[in-house]
Give the backbone structure.
Amino acid sequence: MANPRISITTRMGSIVIELNAEKAPATVANFLAYVESGHYVGTIFHRVIPGFMAQGGGMTVDMDSKKTMPPIQNEADNGLKNARGTIAMARTGDPHSATSQFFINLKDNGFLDYTASNPQGYGYAVFGHVIDGMAVVDAMATLPTGRRMGHSDVPAEDITITAVERLED
């Protein structure tokens, strides 16, 4: 069976991501549940740091957090690395706190990889990679950012997700 592919449409263009259901089954199932519920439509890429990553999937244009499902178990020990173009789950300091927010790595970020099953070494679960539209993600990192509603690195111009759909296998 082919890995699921998702298209994320923003005002800056579309990003196509291939998910790795074999290596990150719970994370992919969680992400697809958010896709199928329409959760991501109307959210923004609310944190973009050039030379690091672009994060989205949980905040509205008003910087309000959307209601989420319960957190999932961290699958960062799956062997996938936080390399340029990969998508991973965002989380708090609790390794098992990921819900809907994700980030796309703008460069190889090995320091985010799993090293040990403890709070310091758990890492961030990679669950897919960009197969088309990395230029869109790179373009996001060229926009000026600032602080908004207590959040830093927020793009001055909203990068709103206008559609997310699962592509046919």
About this structure: The two ends are 9 Å apart (CA to CA). The first strand starts at residue 5 and ends at 10. The longest helix spans residues 25-37.
